[in-house]
Design a protein that fits this description.
Blueprint lengths: L2 H6 L12 H9 L3 H13 L3 H14 L11
Length: 73
């Protein structure tokens, strides 16, 4: 669920398949914009993609939404 990173980067219009809409809406309702900005900033500073994946996983787990990404890691 890298949607949080996109929101943190300032994206306001997202395109996705219909099956993802409900999960993304749920995520957007349960994250704070400032937290998403922090996640985006840290992701840009990461040296490797695995660091970004771990940051996103930790971000989601702290908010009780780890189940939304477990299949995609």
């Amino acid at each position: 669920m890298c949607v949080a990173i996109l929101i943190g980067l300032g994206y306001r219009h997202l395109s996705m398949n219909g099956r993802s809409v409900a999960r993304v809406k749920y995520l957007l309702r349960h994250i704070d914009f400032e937290d998403a900005q922090t996640l985006a900033r840290r992701s840009l500073e990461a040296q490797m993609a695995t660091e970004v994946r771990h940051q996103v996983a930790a971000f989601m787990e702290r908010r009780g939404m780890g189940g939304l990404i477990r299949g995609g890691l």
